[in-house]
Amino acid sequence: MAEPLTILGIETSCDETAAAVVRWRGSDVPGEILSNAIFSQIEDHAPFGGVVPEIAARAHVEHLDGLIARALKDAELGWDDLDGIAATAGPGLIGGVIVGLMTAKGIAAARGLPFIALNHLEGHALTVRMTEALPFPYLLLLVSGGHSQLLVVEGVGRYRRLGTTVDDAVGEAFDKVAKLLGLGYPGGPAVERAARDGDPSRFPLPRPMRGRPGYDFSFSGLKTAVRQVAESLDFLTDRDRADIAASFQCAAADVLSDRAENAMALASETIPPGHRRLVVAGGVAANMLLRERLMVSAHACGYEFVVPPLNLCTDNGAMIAWAGAERLALGLTDPIDAGPRARWPLDPDAAPARGAGVKA
Ligand code: KG4
Ligand code: ZN
To answer: In this structure, which residue's CA is closest to atom 13 in ligand 1?
Structure first.
């Protein structure tokens, strides 16, 4: 059995300040989350209806040291018990990324610890290995505030992108719809809550890309259609809001499951039968309707469906610590001068997405 590794992970790429300690005991056994401290900046950003990068960076500075101390305390460990330190180095809001990265570098230098500058998306991608030791390869639908991608996860650091969004990320669409309907921030959970009492068939919204070959996504037309529906009603009642939220959520889930079905059909040619697993990760994976729809799609395609628990779908420190441990176990550490990266694709060889407002 491998020597256990105990890693501190730091996450500051968006609006959650997080620090966690995770123990790795081998690549074929689940990890042990010893602590998972998180501070959500929701109250700081709520008055602005979205994340304000400058406020986020300042809040990370204010809270990170305390969270790291708490993560160690909750884990009942001291600095000497750590084998390495990992921090998100991108992609994300650069001011916040710098706060976490520089803090991790300071600790690594002071304590003489191995340092891992981690891709935040890799944290999401490998979470299911921490929770259930899922073997490679698997198919991944990564859906967050900044990304909507389908990838084959072949190994640590080895990702083959099948498709991505040609405009907005799906989480971004949830956030914008929430803002439009006056549901507040953060948008995803607010839309899901409002949709609970809504009629998903009242407004016939478009399903961009559905039924077309390929694995790319598009969400900006759907978002525009939601705006047009909202503007066509003189006054939005709670019923209208619930029906629009439900109609939007259903359309988004339809598109995501359609594209995932295409990817499962393609991946079946390369993924051996015992490895046919569809994983969904990232903040939008916390959406219950999406989880249900993807499970149905996966089973229809002969795939097992795997999803992390809700608190490990949205940003957290444990996923960074775990991915850092997976890298450290393979000797993949980074030099102390590794820089922050606002953009950092998981598959650098993927053909650029083509579309009107490509961001990913
Ligand atoms: O992974 P994440 O926490 O941060 C990024 O890396 O972006 O994802 C945040 C995104 C936001 O757009 C948020 O609205 C969305 O995930 N989200 C949801 C839900 N919870 C969070 N979207 C739909 N339904 C949810 N329950
Ligand atoms: Zn994320």
So the answer is: 188
Asked if residue 257 has its Cβ within 6 Å of ligand 1, the reply is no
Of all protein residues, the one whose alpha carbon is nearest to atom 16 of ligand 1 is 283
Question: What distance in angstroms lies between residue 111's CA and the mean position of ligand 1's atoms?
Answer: 35
Q: Which atom number of ligand 1 is nearest to the Cα of residue 186?
A: 14
- Please state the CATH superfamily assignment of the domain spanning residues 5-133+315-329 in this structure: ATPase, nucleotide binding domain (3.30.420.40)
CATH topology of domain 138-310: Nucleotidyltransferase; domain 5 (3.30.420)
Does the Cβ of 314 fall within 6 Å of ligand 1? Answer: yes
The C-alpha atoms of residue 4 and residue 259 are separated, in whole angstroms, by 39
Please tell me the distance from the alpha carbon of residue 152 to that of residue 38, in angstroms, as a whole number: 29
Which tens digits make up the pLDDT trace of 194-243? 999 999 999 999 999 999 999 999 999 999 999 999 999 989 999 999 99
Question: What is the rounded CA–CA span in Å between residue 254 and residue 141?
Answer: 14
Domain coordinates in residue numbering, the chain: 5-133+315-329, 138-310
**Share above pLDDT 90 across residues of the chain, in percent, rounded to a whole number:** 91
Asked whether the domain spanning 138-310 has the same topology as the one spanning 5-133+315-329, the reply is yes
Beta strands, E only, 112-220: 115-119, 138-143, 148-155, 158-164
